[in-house]
Automatic annotation (TrEMBL):
Residues 385-416, 504-537 are annotated as: Disordered. GO terms for molecular function: GTPase activator activity. GO terms for cellular component: cytoplasm. Keywords: GTPase activation. It comes from the Eukaryota. This is Rab-GAP TBC domain-containing protein. Residues 38-310 form the Rab-GAP TBC domain.
Amino acid sequence: MEDVKSAPCLKYEEEWLALSKVDIEMTGLKEKIMEGELRASRFRSVIWRLLLGALTPGYPDLWSEETKASREHYKQLKESIAVKPCLISEPERDNPLSTNEKSSWHQFFCDKELKCLIKQDVVRTFPGVDFFRSEEIQEAMISILFCYARENPTMCYRQGMHEVLAPVVFVVKSDHHALLHTKEQITLRSDILYVVNPDCFEEDSYTLFRRIMNAIEGSYLIPNVAPTSTGYFPCPTNAGTGANENQVIAQLNWIKEILLAPSDPELHDHLVKLDIPLPLFGIRWLRLLFGREFPLQDLLVLWDAIFADNRSFDLVNYIVVAMLSSVRKTLIEADYTNCLTTLMRFPAVTDISLIIDYALHLKNPTVYKVPSKFKSIPKVSNKAKEKKTKVMNGPTSTNNRKFVPNNVHRPAQLQSPSYDQDLHFSDRYLLHEPDLLLRELKHAQNIISLCSAKLAQYHRVLEKSVDPNDVQAHSALTGMQELSNLLADNVRKSEPMAVEPAFEAQEKIVSPTAKKPPISPTDKEQVKLTQPPSRPRSVEMTLLKSTSMPIKEDDLEAAEFTLSLLKLS
């Protein structure tokens, strides 16, 4: 009976020995990863360190020293940025009321504000996973993100980084649990105990997170903008803006025109016809490494493949196309609203390996075959392959590289003068470019109208079958009717509004009308003569009975409310 009980423990050490014997190219290990064989691994965090370069493959004797160095780096960083103003020697010059930016107290308050900003995001991480409700995990994540922000001041902390860190801490902690469970039954090797040390949870998580961010930092960078010491991003400057400076936009245009267009021209043309640019949903995909599009366990398998492909994460570009292709039938048959809804809330995938396999085929069709589920997609022509090969000679990863989109094939909305003049990006919107925001507002307006119509429809159906003596049921029906009327009135009474640029959360917004000198009556008359007659801006759309519905600011709040109703239904 004892042999059966110790068998899993023996397999634990066998997996470690097999891992220590991998060659420097990790060929065999990468093949297993691409086949999805890391799902049951108890050393996933160690494998990620190998794939990302934190440990040297083929030289297990160096792993302890490399691990020690990375842990010492984090400890020293954490200690160096810890501000203790109570220990200052000159309280007369350095005190809580000091306005000097070099003051210890000033830095202390800035650090506190930044940690509060990070915590707001961390507490909302993966709301459906209990693991992330632990106070210990949340405090560790706040500490890691704060250290990263201070070590990388030009990047600081950006919304979304907590969702990149979340899978990392989950994997590291899972490996620690496996070690502790095995340690209760057998005596483990000293090198395992050191490399997978539960006492170094923060240090090992930071090592992985920092290397992942090095590869995807192009998705987070904002041109010509440096964050403040509290982590906020001021309004961007106009100096030096250009079409090639925003890497994530250029990368998505490259994916659309160079990868999607040749592999599936029908789907490409359909998205162009519907006026749905990839940045509308793709920026979130790239920034979070698809963290919101898949369940956590599937996401880990996807990350295994991304890390195993190469350290510049080139496979990410092809995964975007594979995801679009996996729902192509739904997209091709959908109108604007349904198409955008599908892309913003990516449907559940029955097998994540299909996405990975097709992405690998797109990248290297001579080595990887097309998965059977994707055989309906038109084959890439030789001419398209030649075009793709020429472009592939240039850089295509997310790691500090420039993507030069093909201006000839850009959708019309991405060739506007304002787009080329200012590509500043905040969260999912382009600053000073209202087109994407208008599409979001249009989508919200559609949802409001749809909810109003559906509530009225459900009210009519339920009213016929409810018992006349059931007071509570009739009260609920009355509330349903009132809500439907409220949403309908919200649509009909909405006023046209000028769409302002979207900014990072809690970002300081500078009013465009601030500090302007007064205009004399003569100047006012001159302006009236030179300006063309103005007319209110509105967004016209067709839904249900082709109702033209202008948009106002309150629509977004109503949209959030109706979206919650849809989720409940």
